[in-house]
Specification:
Helices cover about 75% and strands about 0% of the residues. With about 290 residues, it is mostly helical. The longest helix has 29 residues. It is globular.
């Protein structure tokens, strides 16, 4: 009877405690992914190959969900939206830029040389998503603020912009990870749009069935493992993440989790310096091994 009551229980909400936990964990997965890439060889090929993708799928999905969910549930959410959201993105970015300039100076590169010889988007490594999210935030603000139509149409308009962004960067031959994670942003928005309907229509056993189906699709996608499957992978991972969150009760986050969650953007944008140290250390170790 107890198991039956659990399986027929309604889904939980995706609340702040779950968001805090994800924001605390995802940066570490990204950092581990990048460090593994820097290592000459290791036994963690899955994390090296897919860890960054999975973390960024989750991050973009959370961002899309958060924007639409807050718009629908917080009165006056768009008041001062651009100032607050861009501030949260670019204060850590420019702080990291100062650190990168100091770090490059210790390596013999002056700030002028650094700015002149570096692609503007690469001044702070691993920070491409700052500019992508900023552009999505700007489009979200103007669409939801000034477009007089249904919320579904507004979300579709933003999805059209994301699709154009993906197509443009694909045609330019840009680095794939600069655009192949963005589909998750659209999926997150739609899940937020139908959040109440999802939780009212589904119960726990149905969520378990969906998770098993998505997990099977995930395995098949990994087996296929082609460049074209990355968009399918993003859709599966994002949907699986939210169904899992819907099936998980709320909890009280520990202080350490809240701390790392509060500096998640900072961890993303300064990791390049730490990774450089890892590579430098490996080069020194290789030198001593050679002599």
């Amino acid at each position: 009877p107890q198991m039956s009551s659990i399986l027929t229980a309604p889904l939980f909400a995706y609340d702040k405690s779950k968001n805090v936990l994800l924001k605390a964990v995802l940066p570490f997965l990204i950092i581990v992914h990048h460090v593994l890439i820097a290592l000459p060889s290791n036994g963690l090929q899955f994390i090296e190959q897919y860890g960054g993708h999975i973390a960024m799928f989750a991050f973009f999905g959370m961002s899309g969900f958060g924007l639409v969910h807050c718009y629908l549930n917080k009165e006056g959410y768009l008041n001062g939206f651009l100032k607050k959201s861009l501030f949260k993105l670019f204060v850590p970015y420019f702080s990291a830029l100062i650190l990168f300039c100091i770090y490059r100076f210790t390596q013999g590169t002056t700030p002028i040389e650094y700015f002149c010889n570096t692609n503007p988007l690469d001044l702070v490594s691993c920070s491409w998503f700052i500019f992508v999210l900023a552009s999505f935030y700007v489009v979200f603000y103007f669409v939801f603020k000034y477009l007089k139509t249904s919320d579904t149409t507004k979300v579709l308009c933003i999805c059209a912009f994301v699709l154009l962004y993906i197509i443009a960067l694909t045609l330019r031959g840009s680095t794939p990870h600069h655009y192949n994670r963005c589909l998750s942003f659209c999926i997150g928005m739609f899940i937020a749009l139908y959040d109440n309907k999802i939780r009212s229509l589904l119960i726990q056993w149905q969520a378990i069935v969906i998770m098993l189906l998505l997990a099977s699709g995930l395995v098949v996608t990994f087996v296929v493992s082609s460049c074209s499957s990355i968009f399918l992978l993003s859709a599966i991972v994002t949907c699986l993440l939210f169904i899992l969150l819907y099936s998980t009760p709320s909890f009280k986050a520990a202080g350490i989790i809240k701390f790392f969650s509060s500096i998640c953007i900072e961890m993303y944008v300064v990791q390049g310096i730490a990774i450089d140290f890892v590579i430098l250390n490996l080069q020194i170790n290789s030198f001593y091994a050679a002599i």
